[in-house]
Amino acid sequence: MPDLPFDTTDPRLAAAAWTRVAEPGDPVAGALRARLGAGAALEWLGHVRRSGRSSPAVPPGGTLQEDGVTVLEWDKAVARWLPRLEDLDIRRELSMLDAVGGRLLLPGDAEWPAALADLAERAPAALWVRGHGRLDRPRPAVAIVGMRASTGYGETIAAQLAIELAERGVVVVSGGAYGIDAAAHRGALSADGLTWAVLAGGVDRLYPAGNTRLLEAVMEEGVVLAEPAPGSSPGRHRFLERNRLIAALGRVCVVVEAGWRSGALNTAKHAEELLRPVAAVPGPVTSMASAGCHRLLRDHGAVCVTDAADVLELLAPSGEDLAPDRPVQPGLLDGLDPLGSRVLDALPARSAASLGSLARAAGLSEREVRAGIGRLELTGHVERSGAGWRRSRGPA
Amino acid sequence: MPDLPFDTTDPRLAAAAWTRVAEPGDPVAGALRARLGAGAALEWLGHVRRSGRSSPAVPPGGTLQEDGVTVLEWDKAVARWLPRLEDLDIRRELSMLDAVGGRLLLPGDAEWPAALADLAERAPAALWVRGHGRLDRPRPAVAIVGMRASTGYGETIAAQLAIELAERGVVVVSGGAYGIDAAAHRGALSADGLTWAVLAGGVDRLYPAGNTRLLEAVMEEGVVLAEPAPGSSPGRHRFLERNRLIAALGRVCVVVEAGWRSGALNTAKHAEELLRPVAAVPGPVTSMASAGCHRLLRDHGAVCVTDAADVLELLAPSGEDLAPDRPVQPGLLDGLDPLGSRVLDALPARSAASLGSLARAAGLSEREVRAGIGRLELTGHVERSGAGWRRSRGPA
């Protein structure tokens, strides 16, 4: 069999090739690249292909303790990858990327998002990127995700969250899908903010087609990115692995609306595994579009968020002081102190009362009544009436 | 000054008297009764009254370590209580109770609810009770509370929760107020279940007047109870202490709708202090009537509940197996196993594909594709087509 038709010693070509050889999130591929480097890893794979797989295929170095990959796993992985070598010429995908004015990002590139390091061996071999924005913006990013079959309620909340977060300089990350994703992207754009869309298929084809305009708008200031090479079709498995990138790129994951089985819950699961705070927006318990959010709140320790301030508080611990100053929240009762309220309650509606009768009515000592009545007089709730006191006629 | 006009050695008269001498939840009164007993405590108070309070008043036994009441607290408490002795004749309130066919309950009585023991020194000296029900029903009780200015959404949910809980033999405890309270009582009644209403004022006057019919219906099978003696008016302080009884009587506290300052949050606070699970029903984040519930979920570790089954699960740990069998929840994806879904995704929409091309497309080994395709054939998703496979024409 012929060797690979491109120069596997070119790190860019080699890394790009791995986005075609292995499916997103393939941990064995990550372990192999970590051990040999993308180029040498391809070389070895080509060698196995030429020599045939008589004995189990294990890369140079054998089964190391640290990569924790068994002989069987190595062999099964090779069996997964070899078929992909048949027609592999990554220069084709790179020219498809050039055709749409995109760029390839490698780990180590200045623009490579540091947050992806948390994915360890499941980090992408490379990213296919389009758009005028940069992924290395020194800004916090928040993932806002939800179901496609969203309600007007969910879309309104998603857009509002995105607007307020974008106004605070937060990058809104989502999946470019219909429903909540689109509402989040639109919200960020309407606030002239930054937003990133992570696709499950190649960036050459903006998917879904109905969101082409929206994704083009995202690319004006932000980026559209994907792990699979151009020409790759989005599939269920790729959607699920795409979700891990959304979860990794966001420092917080906010689920706005999700059905009981929504893929948004999968994004939340990835965020949880990556130790990112997971937040859920509650909704009517009668709305199936909120069932997944309530499930996250009930069973997965998600944080209940109702506005952007709640989300910013989840970001704050990691440095920035982005949370707006919340107004001081009123107590469970109105401004009256307990003593004052007890004395006021004891005052008859219309007639006046003496200190003694107030003490009996309120169950307080006369000294306590004097203290309470004094404050109530200051606040204008009561006024003197002969030897006693009465409720003020004027509004307190 | 004359002695008290009634026989303070009669335990019932003495205990009843304390519900007039001290305000609900007065911990010093509880400590005094615990030390001397209700009767002797009154006697001592009468003695202090006769002899005047020159030196700080401390009961026989001085300031004991265990009751943790300081000299100053004893003296201040006495100053609170003495004014109440002026016109004290509890026989009057007892005759008011007789007039409405009520009964007085004392700690130690067979019907005394054991749950109140958790209130320790803040437990009531006695309870004034009306209704054909009994407070010692061997059934679990759940508190369902919420704001008066509730929405149709909240009232519907409260009623539905009460109906389903009552159908499972759970007693619904609430405060008899307008809004959520009333909806909870009505729900339980509509299911021919038991419900208890805890009032903030005397049981001689069913409050609020607009709920008289409802409270009369509650008394047919359940009870209306209060800590303050008949003739006592409901005041803010008494509402707050009434809430502690609701929290104590319920094994779980469910807040259905609560504004940011709603008194229902005070009930939840009492429940939290009593180590009762606090549950909150979420609602639209745009509804101020749910702001308090979301606050409980976000800041106070309340459990998010969306139906009666969720509430029953909170009851279950303490013994009964009340929770209905939940249907097995579907996974985040449909029935397809990951392997099957990856193979199916790789199959072209209309044309057939070989094992080899499927392996390349899916990023799987041919052996894995064979395994996956086998299951897909069994489930009717795919069918053989010449040397390859295609998606089934019939519905899977």
TrEMBL record, chains A, B:
Where, by residue number, does the polypeptide cross the bilayer? none
According to the lineage, what is the superkingdom?
Bacteria
Q: Which Pfam families match?
A: DNA_processg_A
- Entries under InterPro entries matching the protein: DprA, DrpA_SLOG
**One GO biological process from the UniProt record?**
DNA-mediated transformation
Domain named Smf/DprA SLOG: residues: 104-315
Family of the protein in this entry: Belongs to the DprA/Smf family.
Name of the featured protein: DNA protecting protein DprA
